[in-house]
Task: structure prediction
Amino acid sequence: MSLQQGSNSNIFVMDLRSKATTRLTDTPAIDTGPSYSPDGSQVCFESDRGGRQQIYVMAATGGAAQRISFGDGSYSTPVWSPRGDYIAFTRQGAAKFAIGVMKPDGSGERILTEGFHNEGPTFSPNGRVIMFFRDPGGTSGPSLFTVDISGRNEQRVTTPSYASDPAWSPLLS
Result:
């Protein structure tokens, strides 16, 4: 979790039984949006420690964080794929919001879709499709969309009203 203490936020873990917290980052920056790798060994998160929001990866126990996003604009809302092969993100720049993926070392960055306001990527349980929300502005309100990880086959998900912040349920056995 990100926990705000004073004027900045850091990444913490909490033992749910004891409620004890352990700080993983300790910087004057704002560190938020953690996501564990599927094997639990690493955490990706967003931070403005370089002057604008970027994506970082570190060991799940804390320590030095490695910046992995280097494109134009700001990067946010990182989320690890169920297979561990990609991190999805939102990139904002030039008045556009894009949903993209990159490998956990930052290589292979690909933008899958962009528009006025795309945010909140989340992977399907098989790791092949990303759901996100798009808000075109005005009175239209936000809607859910899916796109496969190749960036093809974008589809709107029909909902009874405005929708945002999607999450997939786990696979049922």
User: Anything to note?
Assistant: Residues 1-67 form one domain.
